[in-house]
Amino acid sequence: KKSSKFRHKKDKFRQPKETALAKHNRRRSESEGCLGDQEAPDISHCISRVSGEGASKEKSSKGPVGPLSLDALKQLGKLEEEPLARVEDSALEEYPEPDVEDEHQRDSDEETNDVEDEHQSDYEEKTDYFGGAYVYSSDEEVNASESASSASEDETELNCTEPMDSSNWCHTSANSSAYCADSENEEEGYSQLSLHPEQSKHTLRVFSLQEKLLLAFVRQPTMLRLTGRATLRVLYGSLDVDGYILTPANPHNKDGLFVQCGLLSPPATMRPMAPQSDSVYSKLMQELNQLVPGSWDTVSPHFDRNATVVLLKKAEGRWPAIELVIANLVKLPHLESSHAGMGFDLKSAKDDHHPWSSQFPGLATKLIKATTSAEQQIPHVVVCGMKNSGKSTFLRQLTNSLLNVCSAVIYLDCDPGQTEFSPPGTLSLVKVTHPLLGPPFTHVCTPEKMYFLGDVSPAASPDSYSNAIRCLVEYKNQHFPSCPLVVNTMGWLYGIGMSLFVDIIRWVNPTDLVQLVSAFSLAGSVSPTDLPLLNASTVHMACGWLSSRNDALPEGHDAVLGSSFASHHLRAVEGKSSSSQPQILRQGMLLSYLSQKQCSSAFCPWSLTPYRLAWSSVAIHEHSCTVQKKDLLHVLNASVVALCTVPKESLLETEVEGYPMFMKGNPPYECVGFGIVRAIHPKEKVFYILTPEPKHRLAEVNALIKGCINIPEVLLTKQARFLKKGQSLPYLANSACSEVTSYSDNQMETRSRSESPCY
C-alpha cells in the first residue's frame, strides 16, 4: 500500500498541472467549438502583450506560446491596428529567455520532497515567462484568478493594451511601444501580468514611450533600484530617491534629476510615497499627451491615484571618468533588463539594501526637526567608522534628506584619501545645493574653501591636518552659521588617527555623532575590527593631537564633563572590498576633475588650451621637502600640481633674475584647484599649465606645489594614438611603452560600448 501510494504521487507529479488561464482557454474553446484540437496558431510576434498564465513552459527561441480563445485572437487583431500599442519584433530581442530548470530533475526533487512531507504539493510554485521575469503564485491565488475570469464574459486574456583677471595667466591663443508588468517585489525584475491587476497589492507597471522614454506606475511598498544613468521626473505623486523627495512642484523636477549609480557605487533606491497635494490628475494627463500624443488613453486604464508616476529618460553624454573603463580598471555596470539599451536597469526590490535602512528614518526625522526648529541648535553631524563601513554612502543619503527642508547643506570632508567633491589629498568645505546621486566623481564641484595636504594620509603631517580642519570649521561658523553641517571622517581610527578624530570632535562641537559598527558590536560583543561604542564621555576622556579638553566648549558646559552630543550607533556595511578600489576612486576623481571642460566620449587633457605662467610670478615647492631646489623644475614637469595661495611672508626670493620663488613653512596650503604642467620653456621662462579652473580664480594663485598626487597612468598611455608608428611614448619607460596598444578614439569607444550598453 505504501509503495502504491508513492507510485501514485510520482505519477501525479509527472503530469503537468493545468494553469488557470489554460483551463479558462480550454473551456471557452470547447464552448465555442472554434479551435478544438487544432494546433495553436503561432503568435510569438505579439506574445509580450499576452498574459502568460497559459504559456507553455518549454524553451523556445521566440518565447513561450500557448493556446488562446478566438475572442483573444480577435482582440489581438484590434490591438495591432493601434499604433501606440504596437510591439515590434525587434523589441522582443531585448527580453532574455529564462533559465528553465531541467524537467526530470525537478520531478525527481519533487518526488523526494513529497516522501518527506505528504503535504508538500499543497503549494505549487507556478512560473510563467514575461519579459525575462517570473511570478510565483500559490494554488489559492490561481483558483481565485480562475473564478474571477469565469465570472466575467468580457474579460480577455490581455491585461492591458500596453504589453509592455591676472596678466600672469593668459591663453596661448516615432512610434511609441510600451509594455506593462505587475511586480510583487521580485528581486529579479518584473513579474507576470495578472488577470486582475486590481487584486494585486504591490504593483509596478512600466511602459515604454518612444525610444528614450520610460513611464513607471509604482506604489507602496514596492521599491525600485536603478543601476546606470538616467534622468528622473515625477509626474504624479512623490518619490524618495536615496533620501531626496522628488515631487512635481520640486525645482529639480523641471529639468529632471540626474542619477548615475552602479559604477563603483551601489544602485539608487527609489521609494514611492503618498501623493502630495500638488499631484493633480489633470496635469498628468496633459503632460503625458504632450510627450506622446494619445498616450494617456493607453495607460489610463492602469493608473492608480495612490501610485507615483515616474518618467525616466535616457541620459545623454558619457560616464565621468570613462577612462577607467577604457583602461580596463573597472567594468561598466552589467545591465540585464529589457530596457538596458537605454543605459540603465530598473528592478523592483523587497527592501532597502543599506544595512542602516531600518534606523535611518528616525535619525533623519530628528535632524530635520532640529533644522526647521527655531528653538533647537542647528545640527552638526559627525559620521565615523572603520574603512569600508559605508560612511560616504550614508552621508550622501543624510545630505539628501536635509536638502528636503533647507536650501543648502555644508559638507566638511576630512578624508584626504577618499574625497567626495575635490581631487585627492585635499580637505574641503562644500556648500551642497543639489542631491548627491552617484559616486564622488559624478558630482565634482568647487569648494567654498579647500586646503592641500599633499598626501592621501595625514600620517606625515598631523599638525597640518588638524590646523586645516580648525580653519575650515571657523570658516563655516563665520559664513554659514544657519546651515546644517555634516562631517565625513577617515577610516583610520587607531593611534594618531584616533587623536586626530578627537580633534575633529572638539573643533566641530557636534550635536550628533553617528558611528557605523558591525552587527557583532551592536549585539554587545567586543569586535576586534571595531572601535568601542563612542559617546560624549569617552570622547571627552580621550587625548587629542592638538586640542585640549577645554577647547570648543560652549558656555554653560563644565570642562570636566565636556561638550555633550547625542550618539547613534548604526550597522555598518560588512564584507571585504577590493584593495585597489581606493586607488581607482582617487584616479576617477582626478580624471573627472580634469575633464570638466571637455564633453567628448573620452578625455584627453592635451587637447585643452594651456595657460602660460611666468616663472617670476609664482613660487615652486615639493610638499615633502626632500627634493633639492635645483631639481624642482625637473620634478614639476609633466606632474600634477596644486594651484595654491600662500602668504607673502612665506615666499623666498631667489638671486637669479626671472627664476621662480621658493617657499618656507609646512602645509596645509590654501588651494584654488589643480593643474598639469604640460611643459616648461627654459628660454622664455614660462610654465604651460592645463587646468579646468577659470581665469578669474587663477588670479589668486602664487604657488605651484607638487604632492604625492600623480597623473593617472591611463592619460599617459593614451598618448599612443597621437604618435607615428615607431615613436616612443614620452615620460614612460620602454617596458611600459611596449605594453601599450595603440587604440584609436573610435576603437576605444567601440570597445567600451561592447562591454555595456550604458556607455
From TrEMBL:
Belongs to the Clp1 family. NOL9/GRC3 subfamily. It is found in: Nucleus, Nucleolus. Gene3D superfamilies: P-loop containing nucleotide triphosphate hydrolases. Residues 1-127, 140-164 are annotated as: Disordered. It comes from the Eukaryota. It comes from Ornithodoros turicata. Pfam families: CLP1_P (PF16575), NOL9_C (PF25467). Keywords: ATP-binding, Kinase, Nucleotide-binding, Nucleus, rRNA processing, Transferase. GO terms for cellular component: nucleolus. GO terms for molecular function: ATP binding; polynucleotide 5'-hydroxyl-kinase activity. Residues 1-12 have a biased composition (Basic residues). This is Putative polynucleotide 5'-hydroxyl-kinase. GO terms for biological process: cleavage in ITS2 between 5.8S rRNA and LSU-rRNA of tricistronic rRNA transcript (SSU-rRNA, 5.8S rRNA, LSU-rRNA). Residues 385-516 form the Clp1 P-loop domain. Residues 90-117 have a biased composition (Acidic residues). Its main location: nucleus. PANTHER family: CLEAVAGE/POLYADENYLATION FACTOR IA SUBUNIT CLP1P (PTHR12755), POLYNUCLEOTIDE 5'-HYDROXYL-KINASE NOL9 (PTHR12755:SF3). Residues 77-89, 118-127 have a biased composition (Basic and acidic residues).
